[in-house]
Amino acid sequence: METKDETAGPIILFDAECILCSANAQFVLSQDRSKRYRLASMQGEVGSALYRRFGIDPGDPDTMIVVDGERMLRDSDAVLSIYAGLGWPWKVLTVFRVVPRAIRDPLYRLIARNRYRIFGKRDRCWVPGPEYRDRLL
């Protein structure tokens, strides 16, 4: 019997304590009609292992990442790849790829560094409803 690799992608790794990050995770789950993405929080075992695999401290990450096999996307490239994978109408947001990464990434990192101050932090990690539990690692 063949089993699916738990870390086969694409997997979105996010901060489940961050209100903005959790809201984005909920959005992806609700809009991902093809169930393409799975999610893992950086606070969980799978998420923290993947962060470490790519040299990012899961206790103090500076980015969310999307992992697909051996490939990892971070910062604005990760965000834009998620919207591309959601299909229409969200795919139209990939037009922002014309903005050079040297401009996109500093803006992304500014928001990421200040995410708790701007959007708030949960006392406990966000956990999806039962209809999405099979997509959370």
Description:
By secondary structure, this protein is α+β, with helices and mostly antiparallel strands. The protein is 38% helix and 12% strand. It has a 4-stranded mixed sheet with strand order 2-1-3-4, with helices on both faces. The mean pLDDT is 88.
Helix content: 25-40%
Q: Tell me the overall shape.
A: globular
Q: How are helices and strands ordered from N to C?
A: EHEHEEHHH
Q: What is the number of helical segments per DSSP (H or I, 4+ residues)?
A: 5
The largest sheet is: 4 strands, mixed
Q: Describe the strand arrangement of the main beta sheet, using strand numbers.
A: 2-1-3-4
Question: Which percent band covers the strand fraction?
Answer: 5-15%
Question: Cα-atom Rg, whole angstroms?
Answer: 14 Å
Alpha-beta classification: alpha+beta
DSSP strand count: 4
Given as residue ranges, the uncertain stretches (5+ residues, pLDDT < 50) are none
**pLDDT averaged over residues:** 88
**N-C termini distance:** 21 Å
Brief synopsis:
The chain is of the alpha+beta class and 137 residues long. It contains five helices and four strands; from the N terminus they run βαβαββααα. It has helices at residues 19-31, 45-53, 75-86, 101-113, 115-119; strands at residues 11-14, 38-41, 65-68, 71-74.
Key features?
137 residues; 5 helices; globular
Q: SSE layout and pairings?
A:
Layout: E1 11-14, H1 19-31, E2 38-41, H2 45-53, E3 65-68, E4 71-74, H3 75-86, H4 101-113, H5 115-119
Parallel strand pairs: 1-2
Antiparallel strand pairs: 1-3, 3-4
